[in-house]
């Protein structure tokens, strides 16, 4: 079968019109090269934008996490200094109470014991802030450094790809076939390597961002938890201490003081000394303050030690015992109490000594209703055992 000739379109002068595509301009090799060069430039521009976005992510993380870490580290150090100042206050309260009348003596002694107990909770707060908040933020210094190395490696691969493409374009202009084929192979290798690097970098930066979000969430949850635990326990102790101070009868101490300084009305004008001539039911009810012994001068002899290798484990559940080594505050007070022969500097007060201390306090006339929170806590622990 013979195909029918196609109908030609003619113009008004009877001349055939050109078919489709005949009027389209043909591209020269230089024009095709320019088109490929434009596509290369577009790819390069998009990759530059992508790299800048990744670098900005890493830069912001380095800046703000570093500043937050520095501030929280300073917060932790200030908390530790506050603990040390409170320990010095405890020492002064013990010294002051030993020279006062019974009511004030009991009130100040209970206040000192409870304040010392709160400082043990504050010690746990400091350690938890260091391990759960500051340390994870500090680790981001090395993490950010590694991400910068990855970005630098990708930038190197990208620059190498651009150089190979530029070299290929120059060879195309000279148009030697063998060199052009070699350059095309090299450019293709560089392009493939750059593509692999960008995919790998995308995964790395995405993982970095995900880990950063999870870590920030966990770090500040731990920070709030540590703060709530400390303030909850401190509020519990301070509430008990406040009621103890409210129960203090200052009128009794005032009567004792007035009795010591009042001049007795005697016919012969004989004056009795305040310590030998005055006697009252209150004096028999409240014996004078006992002389401070080396064991009694230790600031936290009724509180368990929080030093040693198991210190963090004791605080991880909020401590079953709330005492520190006696020598800790003795050093802060600048006191050098003599210890019995064979006794170590950091000896802890065991439970038998603790029981003797509180039993002796009760025998000396301290009402059980006026015990400190620390003393009641120790008794409760003994009853549970």
UniProtKB/TrEMBL annotation:
InterPro entries named in the record: AH/BAR_dom_sf, CBAR/FAM92
Listed name of the protein: BAR domain-containing protein
GO cellular component terms, A-Z: centriole; ciliary basal body; ciliary transition zone
SUPFAM superfamilies, alphabetized: BAR/IMD domain-like (SSF103657)
Region (Disordered): 1-50, 263-385
GO biological process, alphabetically ordered: cilium assembly
Coiled-coil intervals, chain numbering: 151-211
Localisation: Cytoplasm, Cytoskeleton, Microtubule organizing center, Centrosome, Centriole
Compositional bias segments (type: Acidic residues): 336-364
UniProt keyword Disulfide bond, yes or no: no
Alphabetized Pfam families for the sequence: FAM92 (PF06730)
């Amino acid at each position: 079968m013979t195909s029918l000739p196609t109908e030609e379109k003619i113009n008004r002068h009877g001349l055939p019109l050109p078919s489709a595509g005949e009027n389209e301009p043909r591209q020269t090799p230089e024009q095709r090269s320019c088109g490929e060069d434009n596509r290369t430039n577009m790819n390069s521009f998009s990759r530059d934008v992508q790299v800048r976005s990744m670098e900005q992510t890493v830069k912001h993380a380095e800046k703000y996490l570093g500043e937050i870490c520095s501030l929280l580290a300073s917060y932790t150090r200030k908390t530790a200094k506050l603990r040390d100042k409170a320990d010095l206050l405890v020492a002064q309260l013990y010294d002051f109470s030993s020279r006062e009348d019974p009511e004030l003596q009991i009130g100040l002694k209970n206040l000192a014991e409870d304040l010392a107990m709160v400082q043990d909770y504050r010690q746990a707060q400091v350690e938890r802030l260091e391990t759960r908040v500051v340390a994870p933020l500090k680790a981001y210094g090395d993490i950010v450094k590694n991400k910068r190395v990855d970005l630098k490696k990708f930038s190197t691969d990208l620059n190498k790809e651009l150089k190979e493409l530029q070299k290929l374009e120059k060879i195309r202009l000279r148009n030697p076939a063998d060199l052009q084929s070699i350059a095309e192979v090299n450019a293709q290798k560089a392009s493939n390597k750059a593509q692999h690097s960008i995919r790998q970098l995308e995964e790395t930066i995405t993982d970095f961002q995900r880990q950063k979000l999870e870590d920030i969430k966990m770090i500040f949850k731990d920070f709030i938890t540590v703060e709530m635990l400390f303030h909850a326990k401190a509020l519990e102790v301070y509430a008990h201490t406040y009621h103890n101070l409210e129960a203090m009868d200052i009128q009794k101490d005032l009567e004792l003081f007035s009795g010591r300084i009042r001049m007795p009305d005697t016919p012969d004008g004989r004056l009795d000394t305040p310590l030998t001539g005055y006697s009252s039911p209150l004096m028999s009810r409240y014996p004078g303050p006992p002389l401070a012994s080396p064991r009694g001068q230790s600031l936290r002899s009724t509180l368990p030690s929080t030093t040693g290798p198991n210190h963090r484990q004791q605080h991880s559940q909020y401590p079953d015992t709330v005492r520190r080594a006696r020598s800790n505050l003795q050093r802060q007070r600048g006191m050098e109490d003599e210890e019995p022969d064979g006794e170590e500097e950091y000896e802890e007060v065991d439970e038998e000594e603790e029981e003797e201390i509180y039993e002796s306090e009760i025998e000396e006339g301290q009402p059980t209703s006026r015990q400190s929170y620390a003393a009641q806590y120790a008794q409760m622990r003994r009853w549970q055992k």
